[in-house]
Amino acid sequence: MVQLGQFGDLKTSDGLKNLNTYLEDKSYITGYQPSQSDVAVFELLKGAPSAEYIHCLRWFNHIKSYGDDKKKFPGEKPKLDAKPAAPAVAKKDDDDDIDLFGSDDEVDDEAERVKKERLAAYEAKKSKKEAIIAKSNIVLDVKPWDDETDMAQVEECVRSVQCDGLLWGASKLVPLAYGIKKLQITCVVEDDKVGTDFLEEEITKFEDLVQSVDIAAFNKI
């Protein structure tokens, strides 16, 4: 358990060294998410630690990045002193140290609450997670009958083929021979909804303009 005075005066090199050692294998002052405990320690620092205290600096920059959202961190903000508490001289029944984060019961309750919140968030995310949709990127070569075919009309006809799971992309004209050019056009399809057979059948229906359709490239996304 972290105690008040464990780090010492955080405005001194000794205090920073203690905090740096503490944060060596931790992301936050307590628990697994930012809390008001981080805010309390953050406010005790006079500014960003030097690169010498690399773990302190990492933690400081992380907490600083939240800006005013630090006020929304969970938990109750502990009341901290920059310097260690004076040694207790009271009778043995009195506590020797002031608990920075409350009693063991309070820590256990907080840990249990955080655990339940994280579990609830995980279950909610899991229940809402969408199934991965398999998609493919296809490049089609659409060949006309001759060099007198209106290729703009060919492209217009190809793009008129529409269905759920089909999205047409870029296109260009590629020279073949004897002045004939083919239309090379890209599309993205959802594999479960659109197949290459469907595309070929629909495009070759424009038989006055289209001689054939070939698959130039087929890549899974």
From TrEMBL:
GO molecular function: guanyl-nucleotide exchange factor activity; translation elongation factor activity
Coiled coil ranges: none
InterPro entries membership: Arc1-like_N, eEF-1beta-like_sf, EF-1_beta_acid_region_euk, EF1B_bsu/dsu, EF1B_bsu/dsu_GNE, Glutathione-S-Trfase_C_sf, Transl_elong_EF1B/ribsomal_bS6, Transl_elong_EF1B_B/D_CS
GO cellular component, one term: eukaryotic translation elongation factor 1 complex
Pfam families, sorted: Arc1p_N_like, EF-1_beta_acid, EF1_GNE
Domain Translation elongation factor EF1B beta/delta subunit guanine nucleotide exchange: 135-221
Domain Elongation factor 1 beta central acidic region eukaryote: start-end pairs: 66-92, 100-126
A GO biological-process term: translational elongation
Keywords carried by this UniProt record: Elongation factor, Protein biosynthesis
Domain of life of the source: Eukaryota
Gene3D superfamilies in alphabetical order: 1.20.1050.130, 3.30.70.60
Listed PROSITE patterns: EF1BD_1, EF1BD_2
Assembly: EF-1 is composed of 4 subunits: alpha, beta (alpha subunit of the eEF1B subcomplex), delta (beta subunit of the eEF1B subcomplex), and gamma (gamma subunit of the eEF1B subcomplex). Interacts with elongation factor EEF1A1.
Family: Belongs to the EF-1-beta/EF-1-delta family.
Function: Catalytic subunit of the guanine nucleotide exchange factor (GEF) (eEF1B subcomplex) of the eukaryotic elongation factor 1 complex (eEF1). Stimulates the exchange of GDP for GTP on elongation factor 1A (eEF1A), probably by displacing GDP from the nucleotide binding pocket in eEF1A.
Protein name: Elongation factor 1-beta
Protein's organism: Helobdella robusta (Californian leech)
Phylogenetic placement of the source organism: Eukaryota, Metazoa, Spiralia, Lophotrochozoa, Annelida
